[in-house]
Amino acid sequence: MQNNEILLSVNDVSKRFGGLTALKGVTFNVKKGEVLGLMGPNGAGKTTLLNVIAGEYNPDTGKIMYKDHNITNMPPHKICHLGIARTYQIPQPFVTLTLQDNLLASTLYGRQLKKKEAISEDEKIFDLVGLTEKKNIIAGSLPTLSLKKLELARALARKPDLLLLDEVAAGTTEKEIPKILNTIKEIRSMGITIIIIEHVIKVLMNVVDRIVVIDKGMQIAEGIPSAIMCDSKVIDAYFGA
Ligand SMILES: Nc1ncnc2c1ncn2[C@@H]1O[C@H](COP(=O)(O)OP(=O)(O)O)[C@@H](O)[C@H]1O
Ligand SMILES: [Mg+2]
Please, which pLDDT band fits residue 199 given cuts at 50, 70 and 90? Predict the structure, then answer.
C-alpha cells in the first residue's frame, strides 16, 4: 500500500503560546499509506502538532502541504473537507446521545446521504472499532476507552485519507491491546494514511513504519522503531540525561 508519494509535508513549523514555545522548527513528511508514530514525553508538543495540522491553531512559522494544497492557515472544516480527520485526546461526544446517534451526526455531516444508508455505513464502522454491542448506550454513561473508540469511529465516518490519532489506546487493558492493533492495521489496509500519538509503546512498535520524536517542541529523532528505541537522545528525553 505504501509508496513514495508524499501525502503531507510539515516544514519548519513553530507554535508559541505566549512565552512558551510548544513547537520549534518541526519538519517531516508522511508518505501515502504510511503509519507514522509521534512520540515524546508529556508536554512535548504532540497534540499541538496535530492541532496545527488539523487547522485548529495557525502556526507562527512554517508551511504545511497536504496533497497539492497549502493548508497552513486553512480553517479546520476546510482541512477536514480535504480528507484529514482527527480524534481528540479528551473525547468530545454528545453525552446525552447514544453512540449510534453520535456517529450518525458525523456520518451525515455535510453529505447527501439517506439516514438508512448512513446507518448501514455506521454498522461497518462500529464493527471495525469494536463498539457494535454498545451502540445503543448513552455516550455519557460509558468509560473513556469506549469514548476513545467512538472518537475513532467519528473520524472514520469522515472517510479520511489521512487520520490523526491522539492517544486512542490510552486506558486500554493489556487484554484489549491486540484488538486495538487489529483495528489500526485494518484501517491502514483500507488505504488510510495514519499519524498516531500513542503512549502504549507496544501499540506504537507494532503498527508504525516510522517514528518522529519531539521533546520540548523540537524534533530530536526520526527513524524506524527499532532505531528510535535505542537512540540516546530519545532515552534521555524519557528518562533524563
Ligand atoms: N491552548 C494552549 N494554550 C497555552 N498553552 C498550551 C496550549 N496547548 C498546549 N499548550 C502547552 O504547550 C505544551 C505542549 O502541549 P501538548 O501539545 O498538549 O503536549 P503533548 O500532547 O505532547 O503532551 C505544553 O506545555 C502545554 O501546556
Ligand atoms: Mg497530548
Answer: confident
Q: How many domains does the chain have?
A: 2
Q: In this structure, are 2 and 65 located in the same domain? A: yes
Q: Is residue 184 part of a domain?
A: no
The pLDDT tens digits of the residues spanning 31-76 come to 999 999 999 999 999 999 999 999 999 999 999 999 999 999 999 9
For residues 46 and 119, membership in a common domain is answered with no
Range of 210's domain? 1-83+162-168+192-241
Q: For ligand 1, what atom is nearest to the CA of residue 214?
A: 22
Cβ atoms of residues 169 and 144 within 8 Å: no
Retrieve residue 20's grid coordinates: 512558551
Residues 229 and 110 reside in one and the same domain: no
22 C-alpha vs ligand 1 centroid, how far in Å? 6
Judgement on whether residues 95 and 76 belong to the same structural domain of the protein:
no
DSSP-based three-state secondary structure for 51: helix
pLDDT at 2 over 60: no
Q: Is the CB of 42 under 6 A from ligand 1?
A: yes
Q: Which of 14, 20, 38 to mutate to test the pocket of ligand 1 (most atoms within 8 A of CB)?
A: 20
Q: Is the CB of 43 under 6 A from ligand 1?
A: yes
Query: Structure pTM?
Result: 0.94
Return the C-alpha cell found at 109.
Answer: 455531516
Same domain, 4 and 53: yes
Is 182 within a domain?
no
Cβ atoms of 21 and 60 within 8 Å: the answer is no
Residue 185, CA distances (Å) to 28, 49, 100, 105 in order: 22, 23, 24, 26
